[in-house]
Amino acid sequence: MVGRAWREGQLPLTWNPIGGSTGLHGASDAITVNFHGVRGSTPCHGEEIMGYGGNTSCVSLDIPGGRPILFDLGTGLRYFGAAHPADEPFRGTCLLTHLHWDHIQGLPFFKPLLHPDADVTVYAPEQEGDLTVAEVFADTIKPPLFPIHFSMFPGDVGFADVANEEFSIGDGVDVMSRLVPHVGNTLGFRVTWQGRSVAYLSDHQMPADGSFDVTPGVLELCADADLVIHDAQYTPEEFVVKSDWGHCTPEFAVYVAARAGAKRLALFHHDPMHHDDMLDLIAEQARRCGDDLGVDVFAARERHSVLV
Questions:
Q1: Residue 15: inside a domain, yes or no?
Q2: Which of 40, 96, 165, 186 has its CA 20 to 30 A from that of 56?
Q3: CATH code, 93
Q4: Which domain, by its residues, includes 77?
Q5: Are 32 and 59 in contact (CB under 8 A)?
Q6: What does pTM read for this prediction?
Q7: Secondary structure of the chain in the HEC alphabet?
Q8: Average of per-residue pLDDT across 253-268
Q9: Are 164 and 64 in contact (CB under 8 A)?
């Protein structure tokens, strides 16, 4: 394999609990973006984080008439898989940004892989050296790190190593992948269907000196996107002491979206130490910044959806 604020005539931002009655209007001609895990680094739990959720990165796209598309395989994947009918084989695609634990931990707990006819294709970044992505997974999900070897799951998982490429994953569904700054080879993705576009950059290292330089690949991914889902893990104060840890501030995320002409921005990859009240404050400050720059900003919440 290959490697804005709401305006009249556009679908408004609509929050809905996943698994309940959505009441979404226009879904037959829209992409439904579902947030299953929005945390970075490690899953967390507790009453203080229940509003935004504690599972790590996993987002699904429902496109009318198409197979499911996943961004990342964090612990939120388990909940996505648990809702899939056990007697129906899962067939879909994952666009995996990178191989850090918080982005792959959900895969061995993805219940649909227990069906022998399950078929998942994972597009992931080319690795440094001679190892393929498939070899990395085979060398990770095995004893003594995991009770069984990855090859023992009944379902089929295929891997495609990609870098800066464009490819299709279904009828009319186009994908752009670009390498983005992080720790280790990392991709951002853009999915486009019928003129609607979602960009996903879960982990993005802003310049360590605190400047707002943006790489050309990042701007390509986000250019005029309807929705950008973007890393916003550290406050400016936290970034001072974690400037080379691979992430960025909400202010940088807003700047990226505004400079690229994106309409909406979802703050993502929340730090596990950020409780609900803190994230509410971060989101409100970013929303005000977005208002000044013409971008509609919100903080992603687990078990909620938005239409594009």
A1: no
A2: 165
A3: 3.60.15.10
A4: 30-307
A5: no
A6: 0.91
A7: CCCCCCCCCCCCCCCCECCCCCCCCCHHHCCEEEEEECECCCCCCCHHHCCCCCCECEEEEECCCCCCEEECCCCHHHHHHHCCCCCCCCEEEEECCCCCHHHCCCHHHCHHHHCCCCEEEEEEECCCCCCCHHHHHHHHCCCCCCCCCHHHCCCEEEEEEECCEEEEEECCEEEEEEECCCCCCCEEEEEEECCEEEEEECCCCCCCCCCCCCCHHHHHHHCCCCEEEEECCCCHHHHHHCCCCCCCCHHHHHHHHHHHCCCEEEEECECCCCCHHHHHHHHHHHHHHHHHHCCEEEECCCCEEEEC
A8: 98
A9: no
Give CA angle at 69 (197, 268), nearest 5°. Answer: 65
* Residue 216 is assigned to a structural domain of this protein: yes
Residue 194 within any structural domain of the chain: yes
